[in-house]
Amino acid sequence: MPAVPTILVFDSGLGGLTVLREIVRARPDARYVYVADDAFFPYGQHSEAEIVGRVVPVIGELIATHRPDLVVIACNTASTLVMGHLRRAWPVPFVGTVPAIKPACAQSQTRRVSVLGTSGTVKREYTRALIHDFAGGCDVTLVGSANLASLAEKALGGDADISDADITAEIAPCFVDDGVSRTDTVVLACTHYPLLLDRLIALAPWPVTWIDPAPAVARRVVDLLGAGDIEAGSGAPEMYFTSGRPHAPGAALLPSFGDRAKLAI
Question: What pTM value is reported for the model?
Fold first, then answer.
């Protein structure tokens, strides 16, 4: 690996910035290219075949253009579908983002866990296989949100008109109380959702642990690339939108959602 590796981070929109943030913390010396496929956003509204047919050639073009040393697919929906296709097509190391069901079930005290993702992610066989393999006796509730990713994009863009009621309607099914036990852990199975974490915490009917996969993704990147110079300063990521719309510099966007505390690692 080169002394200063190039890491390509790809997502359907701006949710992958939550993953980029953690990777930059772990490898501040790397060069970063962030690509938001906003021309095809949201992925949850497309079929599996359409997502594969879209993402695989786009990633191929990005590899040819930017020649990354590692590619992070910072999207749960895409990761559950395209990782095998990508790894067969290119020798570049790929890191995906998948629902953090194993750590959630391992730490749940009530043995009742919810997985909050897009409709596509929660219905996918890949997600159900994770539950089968790693739930460890936990009662897992799958919650498919149709609108939360779009609400998060709007919030990051400065839209102040996102109501508490809109967010509450999306997360309410996560909170299950059967009179004996109730949900104590919620997996954020979409990289957009941590953008709303402060609101999610405030609107939850009772306190829960919110689990984000981004720190685990960053650890995997370090496993593959090495620790590098963790004392180095990080430069602004290069940012691109497939729609061609003008973009704000990555360095300006990253602080806009700051250190959203209380994310489980």
Answer: 0.87
